[in-house]
Design a protein that fits this description.
Glutaredoxin, Thioredoxin_CS, 8 helices, 4-stranded antiparallel beta sheet, Alkyl hydroperoxide reductase subunit AhpC, alpha+beta, 5-stranded mixed beta sheet
């Protein structure tokens, strides 16, 4: 005998041997399904019932519980006194019948005699009065794989549950018109899921579907076949960002912004560039064309848990677990740039084929232009020290990719960009001495 035991309280599911599943007449090969009509069946030699032979139609207008068991199933035997009490209490509305497996692979005629003798012993010991039958055909026909295997059928003949455990509360819910949640009993071959402990759980169907999780977070390299948005946005219960450099992941985790743009609340508080104090900073040198040192991050949380504060804390742990760096947020005096008002200089003739015209009406227009020009370069933030609050109207003609040329054009209109020092919060990434 092959036993497969699932620990669930006192439950012991006893699986029928493989050779019990014989070929089934295709005209009868209709399996019970929850929510569908119960396939008709016939039981002969029913004990302790008004009829010796019964079929599904005999129970029309009344609930029916078929509790299938075998003599090697300890939990089946233990449940008999409980089923007996259920039959006494709810018998006017719900009929209980225990169907014992008397298959020939247990020893031919001796198997049938053995299970019947066992039942007589249990009946005498516990004063069992519920109806009982012994029939292996129904086991084969309905592909019953393990016991207990219980069918709950409503007065209209619709299957309302297929389970291995039934409680008083379940029964009362059924009788009250409710649909209780029941643990599922599987038919032979129905559960196709396999599990290999050498492969990651849920990947490629390993012990479940890819969506069978409550919480998940993933860091991956950005492969050349991948695509998706690179904005740190929470949508529903998840956040997914594709193809970002490692510094952006650390920025979001520790400041709440992946990029610290000019119009974000973090701009005046946090220094945009992270400070690297690493023996090998190569992971922070992305090549976006070759997609080296660019990454993806995906996180999904249970309902109501996908808050920015939670996601940032989890991302901090994920980055630590994946890359091992130590991170602090410190106040340091950092080099920044300032837009200032200066005396106008005489314009010069520009002969740069890359030059273009841009019109500015506010100080913020100039700062945004300069910020975007330096975004993938120095990344040093710029702050307003002009004292100008009103509007104006100027047009500059310069090369957007040449910071010196931008400054030259601004000076013609009485503006300049200078270097200063400002105390700001900085994300500092260091080698973790405990992991070296």
């Amino acid at each position: 005998m092959k036993r497969v035991i699932f620990s669930l309280g006192l439950l012991c599911l006893y699986h029928l041997p493989g050779n019990a599943q014989t070929a089934v007449n295709t005209t009868l090969n209709i399996l019970p399904q929850v929510g569908q009509k119960m396939p008709d069946f016939e039981l002969e030699g029913v004990q302790q019932f008004e009829k010796k032979t019964v079929s599904l139609s005999d129970f029309k207008g009344k609930w029916l519980v078929l509790d299938c068991w075998n003599r090697y199933c300890g939990s089946c035997v233990e449940s008999m006194p409980k089923i007996n009490e259920f039959n006494k209490r709810y018998g006017q509305q719900m009929q209980f019948i225990m169907v014992g497996y008397n298959g020939s692979q247990y020893g031919g005629e001796l198997a049938d005699k053995a299970i019947r003798a066992d039942f007589e012993k249990y009946k005498a010991k516990h004063d069992l009065t519920f109806p009982a039958a012994f029939d292996s055909t129904i086991f084969h026909r309905f592909s019953i794989y393990s016991c207990p295997h219980i069918f709950i059928i409503d007065p209209s003949g619709i299957v309302r549950g297929i389970t291995y455990m039934l409680t008083k509360e379940n029964i009362e819910d059924f009788l009250a018109g409710k649909q209780p949640k029941l643990p599922r009993a599987w038919r032979k071959g129905e559960n196709k899921v396999t599990y290999e402990d050498t492969r990651p759980f849920l990947i490629d169907g390993n012990n479940g579907a890819a969506t069978d999780y409550l919480y998940r977070s993933v860091i991956s390299p950005y492969k050349d076949y991948m695509h998706g948005q690179s904005q740190f946005r929470i949508k529903g219960n998840q956040m997914q960002v594709m193809g970002v450099d490692l510094a952006s992941l650390y920025r979001y985790a520790y400041t709440g912004s992946g990029y610290i743009a000019l119009d974000e609340r973090q701009y005046s508080e946090y220094y945009r560039n992270v400070v690297l104090e690493l023996a090998d900073p190569s992971l922070f040198k992305p090549n976006r064309n070759l997609r080296t040192n660019t990454f993806c991050y995906s996180i999904e949380l249970p309902e109501g848990r996908a808050k920015e504060s939670n996601i940032r804390k989890i991302l901090q742990r994920d980055l630590k677990n994946c890359f091992g760096f130590a991170v602090t947020v410190e106040k340091r005096k950092m080099p920044v740039q300032a837009l200032v008002k200066v005396a106008k200089v005489a314009p010069v003739v520009v002969k740069n084929v890359n030059a273009s015209r841009s019109r500015f009406k506010t100080v913020n227009d100039i700062m945004s232009y300069y910020f975007n020009a330096t975004y993938f370069g120095s990344g040093i933030p710029i702050f307003d020290q002009t004292g100008i609050t009103g509007e104006f109207d100027i047009e500059v003609y310069c090369d957007f990719n040449d910071l010196n040329d931008i400054r030259r054009a601004l000076r013609e209109h009485g503006f300049d960009v200078i270097s200063i020092v400002k105390e700001m919060k900085v994300v500092v990434i260091k080698d973790d001495k405990d992991e070296m």
